[in-house]
Each structure stands twice: as structure tokens, then as C-alpha cells.
Amino acid sequence: MVEEEYQPGEYYDYPLIIKKILKTPLVLSPSREIVYSDRFRYTYRDLNKRIHPLAGSLGKIGITKGDTIAVMDYDSHRYLECFFAIPMMGAVLQTVNWRLSSDQIQYTSNHAEARMIITHSDFLPIQLPASDNCLYVDPVYTEAIPPDF
Question: Where are the beta strands (DSSP E) in the chain?
């Protein structure tokens, strides 16, 4: 079987950027479910509705285009929402590997010039010691975000 080769921009009629990546599922299957470990279920339409308030909330606390936001969470629905909301508002998403030591987290966050870290409460024992000499603002605990947010 001969595989067809596409030139850049030939296959899609838009650039494959985060703002556009949800276009296809929102148009073709907005009611399809996204399932997180049988703990949380929602549709692509619901995901899209949750991304915008998150981005708006980050803007209200002073995050602007070009700011780096570190995220330290499991592969969860909250992480998925951050994955879209942060870049869609023009900020930079820094994913933090929770297997790193506190010193390594501090180093990578400082190197990325993260203004904020969104952290799951399970990771506070490693993240809080790293906070002492980091450039970012106070941590935001994802567990404190209301479940309907």
C-alpha cells in the first residue's frame, strides 16, 4: 500500500494549534464522552464549556499572555482542562513531573519562570519545599476547585 504524502497545510484547512484542536470533536461528535478512570465523565461540549471559565479565572488573578503556569497533577480531567485553557489564553503550560525531587521542581520552575503552579494536594509534600525559593506565586490546589467547575 502506498501512503499518500501531504504538504504542510494541505490536509487541514487550519493550523494544528491548541485553539483549533477541539474543532473536529466539537463539530463531529460534541456528545462523545471523555472518561477519566471511571471517576469523571463529560462530553467534548462540556469540556469546552469548562475551559473558558478556567482561562477567565486565571486572567482575573493576573495571569497574562506569555506568563508560564506550572501544572502538577495526575493525568486527570483537571489536567486536560489546564492543557487547553492555559495555552488558549496565550500563557505557557509547564508540565511538572511529580517524580522529580523538590530541588528539581524548584530548578525547573525557576528556569521556566513560572508565575504560578496549579498542584494536586497529593503532591504538596514535594511541591511545598520547592516553593520557598521559586519565582511563582502561591500554589493553587486543584482539590479546592469546585467539582462543578
Answer: 33-36, 40-43, 68-72, 92-95, 114-119, 140-141
